[in-house]
Amino acid sequence: MTAMYRVVKADILDKITQGVWAPGSQMPNEMRLAETYDCARATVNRAMRELAEEGIIERRRKSGTRVRMNPVRQARFGIPLVRKEIEDQQAVYGYTLINSTIEPAPDWLRGRLGLAVGGLVRHVCCMHTADDMPFQLEDRWISLDALPDAETVDFSQSGPNEWLVTAVPFSNAEMSLLAVQADAKLATLLHCAKGDALFQTERSTWMDGQAITYVRLIFRGGHKMTTQY
Amino acid sequence: MTAMYRVVKADILDKITQGVWAPGSQMPNEMRLAETYDCARATVNRAMRELAEEGIIERRRKSGTRVRMNPVRQARFGIPLVRKEIEDQQAVYGYTLINSTIEPAPDWLRGRLGLAVGGLVRHVCCMHTADDMPFQLEDRWISLDALPDAETVDFSQSGPNEWLVTAVPFSNAEMSLLAVQADAKLATLLHCAKGDALFQTERSTWMDGQAITYVRLIFRGGHKMTTQY
DNA sequence: CAGTGGTCTAGACCACTGA
DNA sequence: CAGTGGTCTAGACCACTGT
């Protein structure tokens, strides 16, 4: 009932953690392991492929498979829609539009996204609340070159986030996480003290190499982003 | 030369982004797609399986495969060793031990890690520098119940990080990212102003359900953690 | 019950790469 | 050149689950 490739994978991982196959050492090849576990090579292959993807082992043709010296540690973070994140906390989601303008892309934004000179962007600033308390401030710029429709969308009732996921369901992005200090304006908007440390994410998004949007999400004080791996 | 399953995967993704298969809609089953692409079902299966892992589609037996309504966005962050992170920036890595003690685990730590009452921990505080400038402050607690060897290891020349990766090569962890305000002590250690917003990570690590270590990493001002996805 | 994905197999050919 | 992993196939059985 437990899939064979899982058994093989678990046993290999076990041999590694128990030190039977030390970091840097060579492991048996697929054919030999298939004999050991009395299964097809494809089954061993799947187990090993997954371990390689997870950064535990390193595979090369001809030279074979080795246990990684410094296992590549990586963590996956889910990127939820704010609405969902808030509702998952059993809180009531709320939305307020603060500001919306059409303007030429400022230089710093053109640099980040690689926009053409004179390109127009829709700049939207809005607040997402949880139980009527500020939760996340969204400061977003959308390229009208890439998404002309964005010029006329109504963001007074729901955020650009929700519109974008339907308009541009799939894209590539670069995300940064950092800490910022609350200035007077942020302190007022997020109901915190001036100077408080706030968690911020920045994200630039492209589709087919064309810049779509840049967004800053600033969370209320004390926010943590958590994951397990 | 390009693997067939990659071609299939790319084409399916294309059909989704182009709207041929809209979010929420049903996709053809594996057999049908195998005929379409004139390949084996296993090949289609691999393409679809990867798309499912990436959160693009959703698969269920009997009811088939659908495009996800709200594609699960997720980002992977690599977790490098500090030394490597600094050297990758062409800077010279340096290490200084600030403090090291053996003490009973404080209550908050016992709570986080689920340690037994009276359990001893090794508490190490140290600084990682880049070109002799503070880069990352490491505040770490290691459970001596889990790792008795940690009591006598010499951390004056290299950090607990480097020792742990060899002593406990594989483990599970929970990581949080947040922003903290520099107090007087942090300001001195990290050469920043009191009140500055600093980026901090917290990580609890277990192996076979047994708590190993808890660590806080506080970065110098302006640090960003970046990834692409 | 029946349709769909999940897994496995035995065998094959190929691409890459170290010796 | 030869060994190893990468991929593919045709077919099979099975587990799950909607109807």
Explain the overall architecture.
The structure is a homodimer of 229-residue chains. Chain A has helices spanning 4-17, 30-37, 41-53, 82-87, 107-113, 160-167, 184-190, and strands at 57-60, 64-67, 74-78, 93-104, 120-130, 133-143, 172-181, 197-207, 210-219, 225-228. Chain A has two domains: 4-67, Winged helix-like DNA-binding domain superfamily/Winged helix DNA-binding domain (Arc Repressor Mutant, subunit A, Orthogonal Bundle), CATH 1.10.10.10; 82-219, Chorismate lyase. Chain A contains seven helices and ten strands. In chain A, α1 (4-17) packs across α3 (41-53) and α2 (30-37) packs across α3 (41-53). In chain A, a hairpin with a 2-residue loop joins β8 (197-207) and β9. The radius of gyration of chain A is 24 Å and the shape is elongated. With 229 residues, the first copy, chain A, is an alpha+beta fold. At the A-B interface, α1, β3, β7, β8 and β10 of A face α1, β3, β7, β8 and β10 of B. β3 of chain A pairs antiparallel with β3 of chain B, so a sheet runs across the interface. Chain A binds a DNA duplex (19 and 19 nucleotides) through residues 1, 3-5, 29-31, 39-43, 45-46, 48-49, 59-65.
